[in-house]
Amino acid sequence: MTNHLAAIIRSDGIILGESLASQHAIHEEFGGVVPGLAKTAHEENIDKVIQSALQNANMSIEDVDAIGVTVGPGLEICLRVGCYKGRELAMKYDKPFVGVHHLEAHILMARLPPEKHDESITKQLTGDGIQSSYRAMEFPFLALLVSGGHCQILKCLGIGKYTIVGGTLDDSLGEAFDKTARLLGLPVGGGGGPAIEALAKDGDPKSVTLPIPMQQRKDCDFSYAGLKTSVRLAAERICAERGVERPDELPHQDKANIAASFQHIAFRHVEIRLGRAMELVQREDGIRTLAVVGGVAANKELRRRLNALCSDRDTPWEMSVPPPRLCTDQGAMSAWAAVERLMVGSSDSAEDQEVFARYPFSVSYIDGS
Fold first, then answer.
1. Which of 97, 163, 259, 355 to pair with 79, CA 20 to 30 A apart?
2. What is the free-text note on the cofactor (predicted)?
3. Please, are residues 191 and 148 in contact by the beta-carbon 8 Å criterion?
């Protein structure tokens, strides 16, 4: 996470207040995140972001019941700023503390009740105590996690209980979008995914021939490094035909065709690998529900195609995708993951909590699991 984010969320999923300090403008000119600049921006904005979220919720820190903060995986020097601030607040105000796994937070957003759900449901379930157990989807389910840094298929059995069914052997889907956007000279401050998605609407997805990755492998893993190379070579070939030196100098229609063709093949790769995983977990575990999470899950074309993948099966699957604004990194995901952990009796020691650049799912948080 390079933006600084905070949110106050209730245990029934109602988001009471949010705040964000964007770093897009800081890193745009460099074409990627500069760790030192990101850390400095975090330090300068963290208190303001927290206070803004509290003000938007019409609350003070004393009114908050618990504090959750992302502790990994990610850029350590940035994670440490947020973690230490969360630890400080939890110890100063004697609040329960949860160190949140960033990828689990993305997954659990699929369980967040709809933003405009009828609050009478909560009261019917729980009375006025707001300790709702209502969720948009129940365990177990299959999750497709696609973001700028991660590309995984996971069998989700419970809070802190995940089995990886497939993952990327090299680049993530979001990274492939970012690199293709840079190749075409698109602005990537807000992420390459939205830029490619917008440009692809003007293009023909069948106009540029690209290979579907890993067609000979019958597993559930991904690979996008070869597709990135194929896109670059195709773009260079079109440059030679047009008499221009670089892909970013191509006419709009050529760039749109490249973007549309790349997006089409990238998503076809997802459909094939995910379809295989769906067959596997349905046969072995009886699972027929899919969560699609992470920043790339905000892509409308991906949502449309995966919805068709679920509905067109012999035995249709149910699919849950967070609203687009809740797919990308935001404060509510960490706050909601903390709620989920606390409601199964799981928390951490604020005094001892550290951060992790790598944070494997193989470690379970739940005692006895």
1. 163
2. Binds 1 divalent metal cation per subunit.
3. yes
Res. 354: pLDDT tops 60: yes
Domain pair 4-112+325-343 / 141-321, same fold: yes
Chain centroid offset of residue 335 CA: 15
Q: How far apart are CA 226 and CA 310, in angstroms?
A: 27
With a cut of 70, say whether residue 144 has pLDDT above it: yes
Task: Look at residue 110 and tell me whether its pLDDT is greater than 80.
Answer: yes
Q: Is 172 left (phi over 0), alpha (psi -120 to 50) or beta?
A: beta
Give, in order, the Cα–Cα distances in Å from 120 to each of 117, 134, 145, 157: 9, 12, 32, 29
| Residue appearing with tokens 């996008």 | 224
Task: Check if the beta carbon of residue 33 is closer than 8 Å to that of residue 75.
Answer: yes
Q: Residue 282 has what pLDDT?
A: 98
Beta bridge partner(s), residue 17: 8
Report the candidate in 142, 151, 301, 303 with the shortest Cα–Cα distance to residue 213.
151
Share the mean pLDDT of the chain. Answer: 89
79: amino acid identity, one letter: L
Q: With a cut of 70, say whether residue 123 has pLDDT above it.
A: no
**Sequence-distant (≥ 6) Cβ neighbours of residue 8 within 8 angstroms:** 15, 16, 17, 18, 53, 54, 56, 57, 59, 64, 335
Domain boundaries, the chain: 4-112+325-343, 141-321
Tokens found for residue 75: 């850029």
CATH architecture of 4-112+325-343: 2-Layer Sandwich (3.30)
Would you state the CATH architecture of domain 141-321? Answer: 2-Layer Sandwich (3.30)
361: pLDDT strictly greater than 80: no
Calpha distance 72→364 (Å, rounded): 14
Overall average pLDDT of the 14-43 stretch = 64
Cα 23 versus chain centre, distance? 18
Whole-number Å distance between alpha carbons of 231 and 253: 16
pTM of the model: 0.90
Length reported for the chain? 369
| Residue 88 to residue 133: CA distance in whole angstroms | 30
